[in-house]
Amino acid sequence: MPMKLRDVQQALNGVKTASKLRVLLEDGRLALEDLMPLMQALPARSQAVLNWRLGLADGKPLSLDAIGRKLGSIPDSKSVTGKRVRQLEIDALGKLRDPLLYPENEPPADWEPVVWRALCRIPTSGRRLVYNRLKSIKPPDGRVTPEAALDLAIHRRLPGVGTKIAAWLSEALLAEKAASANGTLTESKVK
User: Fold this and answer.
1) Residue 58 needs a FRET pair 20 to 30 A away by CA distance; which of 41, 107, 156, 161 works?
2) Residue 70 sits in a domain of what CATH number?
């Protein structure tokens, strides 16, 4: 039976290296089919590093130096040291523990649930940026409401957030407000 995303996130807490993640997979405390949807949400380079470190491609985990050579052989890439590969691995595992990958998590106390659901509709590539911007630009009453988030998105008052991401947020907020008005919860993501 597949694990809930929250359980996967909890299983990943404290996992700071791919070797520890490999132990979880080998012990059966975490199933690969539960991990794969989360890995697919990662940037391609992070996915590649974890795939190679875990040996998912051919069953043989690669060393940090071997991965560095593979990354360095990609056209227009610079040579990558084993130390840099370790940093990429740690970064990728940190992204897997990011609560924004898990839409069913409870929203922060000062966020209205509809804004959280809208945020979780945004593709993962822009989700963290929007979350940080919305967190840093609090409305006067201190709560992140749909109206406040929509106002920020529409008027592009989210410094550092591109037009496309602001449009995703606007579209997601409007869809969530409509769904809330109809009494339905939506699961689809903005494309």
Assistant:
1) 41
2) 1.10.10.10
